[in-house]
Design brief:
193 residues, mainly beta, three-stranded antiparallel sheet, 11% helix
Length: 193
């Protein structure tokens, strides 16, 4: 999140935001006190800096130009998956990683004022890296995700309209892990966008 620049920046990466288009009533079950206002519910990763993503797009159209003038088409997704998984097995000898080592799936795009797609558990932290707000749906993203140990921990937050997610992201320490998967010339082709 932090190291991405325009046009890829998404301050709500790795979370699900439920923000109804109406006032919400919060009730303290101990005292009975009620608070009414515009609140949102965030299910987010407690330590997103421990999550690593490799992103692909299943779209092949002019919309990809915002990422550059060329792309690499993967012609054998299973082979790419196997190579990334193999690199993670080798890497896990040096870096403590969560199990399973690799998760891969399409991104589910959601609207903050509507129910999420059936089968998606917004309280399961392993689902959160595969959720993005609907404004990014044209990207048709597919992700490979892995995490350092402790990366898949849920943090639930209720926020008001004054909450600034970007300020929180600025405090995170950017990290990286290099995976060597070898040449992909046999499973990929260069394409102009």
């Amino acid at each position: 999140m932090k190291i991405e620049g325009d046009p890829r920046v998404d301050a709500y990466e790795g979370m699900h935001v439920d923000a109804p288009n109406s006032d919400v009533t919060l009730t303290n079950v101990t005292t009975g006190q009620k608070i009414v206002g515009r609140f949102a519910y965030h299910n987010e990763l407690r330590r997103p800096e421990l999550i690593f993503c490799f992103c692909l797009s299943m779209a092949y159209d002019a919309g990809l130009r915002k990422f550059g003038g060329a792309c690499i088409e993967i012609t054998d997704e299973k082979a790419l998956h196997d190579r990334i998984a193999g690199a993670l097995v080798r890497r896990s000898r040096l870096t403590r990683l969560d199990r399973p080592l690799l998760r891969a799936d399409r991104i589910t795009y959601y609207r903050t004022d509507a129910a999420v797609a059936e089968g998606v558990d917004i309280k399961n932290p392993t689902h959160l890296p595969f959720l993005k707000r609907y404004t990014y749906a044209a990207e048709q993203e597919y992700r490979y995700v892995f995490a350092r140990r402790g990366g898949y921990e849920l943090n639930q937050v209720i926020v008001n309209r004054l909450h600034q997610r970007n300020a929180d992201i600025a405090k995170l320490k950017a990290d990286e892990i290099t995976l060597r998967i070898g040449s992909i010339r046999d499973i990929a082709e260069a394409r102009a966008v």
